[in-house]
Amino acid sequence: ILYSSNTEMKRIQQYAVWLVLKWVKLYVSLSVDVTLDPDSAHPQLILSDDGKQVRDGDKRQNLPDKPERFDRCPCVLGKEGFSSGRFYYEVQVRGKTNWDLGVTTESSNRKGKITASSKKGYWIVWLRNETEYEALDSPTVALSLKQAPQKVGVFVDYEEGLVSFYDVESRSHIYSFTGQSFTEKLYPLFSPSLNEGGKNSAPLIITPVKHQK
Distance between alpha carbon 43 and the CA centroid of its chain, in Å? Predict the structure, then answer.
């Protein structure tokens, strides 16, 4: 009986490893190269030259007020929008006390105060006050995470109406918006939030998706 139990346990462990490897392989194959769009960036945000990092610069820059630019919320979008298929990308959030990640529609409001929710074309998970995680669904959902994610993976299946968030390092699920109906382009959204006197000065960093052993 002991031998049988040990054998069964090994089979379960092997199956779990197989599932993880399959999950990683799938998302690596669906990964997209996201670059930040400076024309959409709030004037206080500082983007790196390669368009892969964003942080709050404390001071508002004198930039053209384009229709696509956020003028109050400290957000920036990815350059490329997606109107079909599946895509995945990863963002380093290490060292931050506040951040927003997700996707939004091409026509979503960028001006003035924005109350983001899935009903208003924003599918977002955010961190506030270092430990408070929420999904801005309708209604908002408080999230209880076992550990603070250092890198977040965002997966979208356009046809299935699915937006999912994952803790990359622990390979665990954070939250999924399901049963959504997408009818226009979706753009990756990033907000490093405000600097808060240096407490939240770390940038959000779009990182290459790599196969993890």
Answer: 21
Residues ≥6 apart with Cβ < 8 Å to 67:
110
* Band of pLDDT at residue 4, cut at 50, 70 and 90: very low
pTM: 0.87
Token pair in block for residue 59: 């001071």
| Across 74-88, average pLDDT | 96
Tell me whether residue 43 is exposed, middle or buried, using C-beta atoms within 10 angstroms of its C-beta: 0 to 12, 13 to 18, 19 or more: middle
Shared-domain flag, residues 76 and 93: yes
Pairing of strands 53-56, 45-47: antiparallel
Say if residues 133 and 191 touch (Cβ distance below 8 Å). Answer: no
pLDDT tens per residue, range 121-142:
999 999 999 999 999 999 999 9
Report CA 36 to chain centroid distance, whole Å.
Answer: 13
Whole-angstrom distance, CA of residue 101 vs CA of residue 91: 8
The parent domain of residue 21 ranges over: 1-30
What is the β-pairing status of strands 122-128 and 172-177?
unpaired
Whether residue 213 lies inside any domain: the answer is no
The single residue listed with the structure tokens 């997209």 is 32
